[in-house]
Amino acid sequence: MPDISSQILGIQRQQEEELTKTVGRNLGINYIDLIHYQIPADVLQVFSEEEAKKYRVIAYSRVGNTVNYATINVMSEDQKIFVNSRAIEKKLIFKKNICSQTSFNYCLAMYQKIKTDKAAKVEKARIDKLKDWANIVKTLDDITSQIAKVSTTELVDLVLAGAINLNASDVHIESTTLGSRLRYRIDGVLQDVAELKKEQYKALLNRIKNTAKLKLDLSNMPQDGRFE
């Protein structure tokens, strides 16, 4: 049996939806309950998260160039101007609907889920790439030969995969006059791996900084960061 607090919340939610429905009926605006509504990511992103919060709009369905959106602020002039501008910009037809604050908040949370899902896909792709490199680089010579062939975007994955395969405890990227020197510490001894060109060094450094959430423009003092 549900506890008293759950029953009260249920009643309050029902009252909120009924009130929203009544407001919509009085204004001649269609009412929509979006709780548990599955909004496709591409439809939700017709409006960015920042736009959704600012103008109180949620795109929830689309057929062709017609987009249904819900709002909790049906009388906003700023919202009207924004939606009309987006319609012209994207050549879309927008149909306004009213929803409750609870529905609106539920949909706002979907933006974070999209970010989380996207980050998970990126992480999976990175791990898969590391596994691919781990099957290729088995020795220091393998790493040295591959560094000359890979793109700058693949360089970090190659360096990390090589370090993991060779059980390196440290990876050293030391600046030199012509670029930088890549070295691994293996069994307590630093071993040269390869010389990196200036453009490789810069790309490698920037990607490591970005992944570790370090400041890209700070180069005259040490920074602490980490990534997994």
From TrEMBL:
SUPFAM superfamilies: EspE N-terminal domain-like, P-loop containing nucleoside triphosphate hydrolases
InterPro entries, per database record: P-loop_NTPase, T2SS/T4SS_dom, T2SS_E_N_sf
Domain Bacterial type II secretion system protein E residue range list: 153-227
Pfam assignment, any one: T2SSE
Record-stated family: Belongs to the GSP E family.
Protein name: Type IV pilus assembly protein PilB
Species, as recorded: Candidatus Berkelbacteria bacterium Licking1014_85
